[in-house]
Structure formats: structure tokens, C-alpha cells
Specification:
heterodimer, A: about 220 residues, mainly alpha, about 75% helix, globular, B: mainly alpha, 1 helix, about 70% helix, about 0% strand, rod-shaped
Chain lengths: ~220, ~40
């Protein structure tokens, strides 16, 4: 299957490049004076958060179009994007507290950004549970599409919560209207990491899409996926 | 790696985060590979 092979190649390349990002971030990017080495978690946490949110936006867009066209490929893509988004949400929610403990002095606080990020993760989990709970493919796709659209609506609130509420979470230092407030070498590492996480997202989604397709073929043939 | 003295010594947290990310990403890549292989089995 060509799609599966393409997904595996992209993922393989992304994993090698991720190793390169590790080397660059750990050995060739300067240490931030106020936060120390813990600041380097930023190079993984933010790209993971970008794709945790980005994946849900794509789930929502695919879901809206699915409700009009009823094309199973859109539902398959939404499912793949949701599963991969869940993985990135796990990364966001684990690296965040690991950074928060040395910098804030606590693993977790129930402020707006953190709570909404947790809510996004729970929506992902709910989406995947819903898909597992409904047997009829057409109903499953329709119900999941509605939840996917709800998830997409949540994303801007997650991203803008630092402006809308008083929160402990730092304000954006790159994704903001004015210039990024990062020195050049740190910005380069961060951009490389975002590129690699994007490639990982693409590789994972293609593989997950191909897996759904294979399972559907198996189901149609009367096998157990 | 040279770290000036005034900088907080919290490298352990960084190492933990980098390990968590590697484990989760490699684990998911492996899970996709294994699930696909099972589906491709005749």
C-alpha cells in the first residue's frame, strides 16, 4: 500500500530529524539565565501544543465538510488526526508540568490555560471513546463529527486564554502579533522543532489513515480488524 | 555543557521531559507499526 509506505518514510525521516533537534537543543542552544536548563523543555512543549491544537482544528474542518459531503475519507482523516492530536496533547500535558515544577514551584494549577488544555485532551479522549462505542459506521461518523466541531470551537479559547484571563502561563513569545522575543539561535531551534513535529504529525496521520482503511477493508470482508 | 553558576540547577527536569517525549513518540510509532502489521496479516 503506497500511502502506508509514504507514511512510514515520512515518520522515519521525522524521527531522525527529531534526534537532530535533541542534539541542537541540548548541545548547541544557549542556556537561558533566569530559567536554567528547564527552559529547553520549551522546544518540545510548544510544538507539541501547536499540534495538539492544530490537529483538533483539522478534525473540526474535516468534520464540517464530512457533514455536507458524507465522504468516508474525511471521517477517516478526522479519526486519524484526533488520535495523533491525542498523542501531542499527552506530550503537552506532561512536558508542561515538568517545566512548571522548577519554574512555578508546582506541577499544576487550575488556571484558565492549563484547565482548558486539559479540557482539550479530555475532548480528544471523549472523541475516541465515542468512536469506539458506536457500531454503525454512518452514525459513528456523524456523532464524531459533531464532537469534532465542538473541539475545534474550543481551540481559540485555549490559545487566547492567556489574554482573556489572568493566568500563570507565560504569554506567547513567538506566535504573537509583534516580533518573536527569542534570540536568533533559540528561535532557529524552536522553528526546527516545529518543522519536525509537523512532519511527525503528517507521517503519523498518513499511517493512521492507512490503518483505518485497512481495518474497513477487513470489516467489509467479514474479518476482525 | 557549561552552565554559569547563577543559573538555576534544574537539568533533571529537562532530561525527564526529553525522555518522556522520546518514549511517547517512539511508543506511538511502534504502536502504529504493530497495528498495521496485524491488519496486513493474511
Amino acid at each position: 500500500m503506497r500511502l502506508l509506505r509514504a507514511g512510514r518514510w515520512i515518520t522515519g525521516i521525522a524521527l531522525v530529524l527529531l534526534a537532530g533537534v535533541y542534539v541542537r537543543a541540548l548541545a548547541y542552544t544557549p542556556v537561558e539565565r533566569a530559567q536554567g536548563l528547564a527552559q529547553k523543555i520549551f522546544y518540545l512543549h510548544v510544538p507539541a501544543a501547536i499540534w495538539a491544537e492544530g490537529a483538533m482544528i483539522l478534525v473540526g474542518v474535516a468534520s464540517i465538510v464530512y457533514l455536507f459531503l458524507k465522504d468516508p475519507r474525511l471521517d477517516r482523516f478526522a479519526h486519524a488526526s484526533a488520535e495523533v492530536g491525542t498523542v501531542f496533547a499527552v506530550l503537552m500535558l506532561t512536558t508542561g508540568p515538568i517545566w512548571g515544577k522548577p519554574i512555578w514551584g508546582t506541577w499544576w494549577t487550575w488556571d484558565a490555560r492549563l484547565t482548558l488544555a486539559l479540557f482539550l485532551f479530555l475532548l480528544y479522549v471523549g472523541y475516541l471513546l465515542l468512536r469506539g462505542a458506536v457500531a454503525d459506521p454512518a452514525s459513528r461518523a456523524r456523532f464524531a463529527a459533531v464532537l469534532g466541531i465542538c473541539g475545534m470551537i474550543l481551540v481559540p479559547f485555549v490559545h487566547l486564554s492567556v489574554y482573556m484571563f489572568r493566568t500563570l502561563h507565560p504569554m506567547p513569545i513567538v506566535l504573537k502579533p509583534s516580533e518573536p522575543s527569542l534570540p536568533g539561535s533559540m528561535l532557529t531551534t524552536w522553528l526546527m522543532s516545529v518543522g519536525v513535529f509537523t512532519l511527525l504529525y503528517v507521517g503519523f496521520v498518513i499511517q493512521r489513515y492507512a490503518l483505518s482503511y485497512l481495518n474497513e477493508q477487513l470489516e467489509a470482508a467479514g474479518g476482525i480488524p | 555543557m557549561q552552565v554559569p553558576e547563577a543559573v538555576p540547577q534544574n537539568g533533571g527536569y529537562m532530561v525527564a521531559a526529553y525522555i518522556v517525549v522520546a518514549v511517547v513518540i517512539l511508543g506511538y510509532a511502534l504502536s502504529l507499526y504493530l497495528r498495521t502489521r496485524r491488519s496486513l496479516r493474511p
